[in-house]
Design goal:
The protein has two domains: about 30-160 and about 350-415, Rossmann fold (3-Layer(aba) Sandwich), CATH 3.40.50; about 165-350, RecF/RecN/SMC, N-terminal domain (Glutathione S-transferase Yfyf (Class Pi), Chain A, domain 2), CATH 1.20.1050. Strands 2-1-4-5-6-7 form a six-stranded antiparallel β-sheet. Helices cover about 35% and strands about 20% of the residues. The longest helix is centred in the middle third of the chain and has 34 residues, at about 215-250. Helix 9 (about 325-345) packs parallel to helix 10. The two termini are about 40 Å apart. It is globular. The protein is an alpha/beta fold. The structure holds adenosine-5'-triphosphate (ATP) and magnesium ion. Magnesium ion binds near residues 65, 66 and 384.
Length: about 425
């Protein structure tokens, strides 16, 4: 499941991507100017203020660099950049210490709609202090008001991230690539998260019925209707996004290779053949016809949960999976930057970028190009690295932070 949220209601089909384009004059930055962490992983209480300029967090292994980025990642819906459970990111008590209060992250900043104040954390109503009763409920406050759903965060904040674990994205499972894609689509079309949740909820319930041998036609038909409607809507959103992404990648930065993208799957074949309404009927019919097979397989054999994102290195005409480690990293960076440019056009601001150990695999010219592009995008990037020298190209343009004994300290600072 992409997003865990029990309060989702069905959401309308996404608008065409061009609907959100705003004039250049309205384009504003997205930035976090104050971040406070409480009982989050290695941090007991920590706070950092920024001008909105890029942030480079440096320091030896284990000081809390990735934890800081992970805390920021909880300002969007979902389970953050490590896909952790809500209770798992809570600070573990030191030996002899009792369990602390529920973790919380608070961010003040500015986006296209002005300033915001976002708060999230484990629901304190469930902070019983007893491990076995720990709850994974998450609360979200937006500008001081409790939000009905964590998906509301997507209206205020959008992010894209790259982590070292994603270095194997092109060789690992289609599930990881699909999740990566859906996150990017979600940054572009906030309603996408609701469609994915609605689809997956109906799919899970159908699979459970079939596994239990309950071939209740009206119940299954209702679930298949929901799967077909949400499934085609989300497949259409992915398709529109990937087409736009290809256009944005066309304008690529010289130091990074241009990627080609394709969506591969049965639902894409259906959409290739005709209108979305026909694809919806087709998907519904296929699900209905596949009930016995799906019961045997224990899962639905057709649908947008089977789609893969195929990426190729255009200049080499090579599947990304066959490219070198550095080339794969560069393709990932190209993809993220293209998505960021696209979001800037559509939403008025590029996403906040969380780039964990980003500089490690990039040579000097690519690092310089990346830093220039980040500054040009106008949204804040939070980067980490163990070696301060990797960020030399940002001197005078960024905050340089380090972490000492759980406190975030500023080494150097320049206004943007
Ligand atoms: N729930 C938790 N409570 C307390 N400490 C935690 C918790 N989860 C992780 N840690 C600790 O946080 C520390 C910092 O982790 P983090 O991944 O942020 O390090 P890092 O600075 O990114 O290191 P590296 O350079 O190796 O990537 C680790 O020592 C880890 O054991
Ligand atoms: Mg790290």
């Amino acid at each position: 499941m992409l997003f865990e949220d029990d309060h989702l209601s069905d959401v309308p089909t996404p608008e065409p991507l061009t609907a959100g384009i705003v004039p250049e004059s309205q384009v504003a930055d997205l930035r976090v100017t104050r971040l406070a962490l409480s009982h989050f992983r290695s941090y007991q209480e920590a706070m950092v203020e920024t001008s909105g300029a890029p942030v480079a967090v440096m320091g030896p292994n284990g000081v809390g660099k990735t934890n800081l980025l992970e805390a920021l990642s909880f300002l969007t819906p979902g389970r953050g950049l490590r896909r952790a459970r809500i209770s798992a990111v809570e600070r573990l008590p030191a030996p002899g210490q009792s369990v602390g209060p529920a973790w919380a992250v608070n961010a003040q900043g500015c986006g296209t709609d002005g300033s915001f104040n976002l708060g999230t954390g484990r629901d304190p109503d469930f902070a019983t202090g007893q491990d076995e009763e720990r709850s994974d409920r998450r609360v979200v406050h937006i500008d001081g008001r409790k939000a009905k759903s964590q998906n509301s965060l997507g209206d205020v904040m959008h992010m894209a991230w790259l982590t070292p674990e994603m270095d194997r994205l092109f060789v690992d499972s289609a599930t990881d690539r699909r999740r990566f894609l859906d996150r990017l689509v979600f940054g572009f079309t906030p309603a996408h998260a609701g469609q994915v949740s609605a689809y997956e909820r109906a799919m899970r319930e159908r699979s459970r019925l079939l596994r239990d041998g309950r071939f209740d036609d009206s119940w299954l038909s209702a679930l298949e209707d929901q799967m077909a409607a949400a499934g085609v809507a989300l497949a259409v959103a992915r398709r529109q996004f990937v087409e736009s992404l290809a256009d944005a990648a066309e304008l690529g930065i010289s130091a990074f290779p241009a990627p080609d993208f394709a969506l591969e799957g049965g639902i894409e074949d259906l959409l290739d053949r005709g209108a979305a309404v026909d694809a919806e009927d087709d998907l519904r019919d296929r699900l209905r016809g596949n009930r016995r097979l799906d019961a045997e397989a224990g899962r639905a054999l057709v649908g947008p949960h089977r789609t893969d994102l195929a990426v190729r290195h255009r200049a080499k005409n090579m599947p990304a999976a066959l490219c070198s480690t550095g080339e794969q990293k560069a393709l990932l960076v190209s993809t993220i930057l293209a998505a960021a440019r696209l979001q800037k056009r559509a939403r008025g601001s590029a996403p906040l970028l969380l780039l964990d150990e980003i500089a490690a695999h990039l040579d000097e010219s690519r690092r310089a190009a990346l830093f220039d592009e980040i500054c040009a995008l106008g949204s804040q990037a939070w980067m980490t690295g163990t070696d301060a020298g990797l960020f030399d190209g940002l001197r005078g343009r960024a905050h340089f932070l380090t972490v000492v004994e759980g406190k975030i300290l500023e080494l150097e600072h320049t206004k943007p």
